[in-house]
Design a protein that fits this description.
This protein is of the alpha+beta class. It contains 6 helices and 7 strands.
């Protein structure tokens, strides 16, 4: 992260750059990018929605995160609610900050950028906890979320048109910081 700066992002103005990062990190088609563009712009009108970006020295966006206080009326909540209810975890839909998207350009992964983005955005949340969904497989993303204190609330969650099932994960805020992160903060 030496040369990457994490800070506020005008996601509406840079939505195409952000979706280009997401397309590389997540493997989206051109059609999926078009659908996601509409969704992102709609989400940004939600109360409390905010975004952060990770910017390289040349000004290029190399990562982003955005989220908002959860609203049970949002599409995501209506899809995950039955799974959370079945697992006895439905209460997590209330008083939680949702990490809607978190993506880092593949060439910049494994540098602590994703960790910096998610911890910074949740540090400013008024809610006492955070929820998110991730593909339900062992992956670097799931390992990061667990290291930060997220745990599985429901698994095998099926989103319409998604090729793989997801897990819904939740964590109490502030997110856990590892020893290495504490060392980095004390040094600089």
């Amino acid at each position: 992260m030496d040369d990457v700066v994490v800070g506020p992002l005008d996601l509406a103005a840079r939505v195409d750059e952000a979706l280009a990062v997401q397309a590389l990190a997540f493997g989206l088609s051109h059609d999926e990018i078009g659908v996601r563009r509409h969704i992102v712009l709609r989400h940004l009108t939600s109360p409390g929605a905010r975004a952060l970006g990770a910017t390289a020295p040349d000004g290029r966006l190399v990562g982003f995160v955005y989220g908002m206080p959860n609203d049970r009326g949002h599409w995501w909540s209506t899809v995950v609610e039955p799974y959370l209810r079945a697992a006895g975890q439905e209460g997590w839909l209330d008083d939680s900050f949702v990490i809607t998207e978190l993506h880092v350009h593949p060439a910049f992964q494994k540098r602590g950028i994703g960790r910096a983005l998610i911890t910074t955005i949740t540090d400013s949340a008024a809610e006492p906890r955070s929820i998110l969904s991730a593909i339900d497989t062992e992956s670097p993303a799931r390992m990061l979320y667990r290291a930060l204190g997220y745990h599985d609330l429901a698994r095998r969650v099926v989103f319409p048109s998604a090729p793989s099932p997801y897990a819904v994960m939740g964590a109490y805020l502030p997110l856990r910081r590892g020893l290495a992160a504490a060392r980095r903060r004390s040094v600089g």
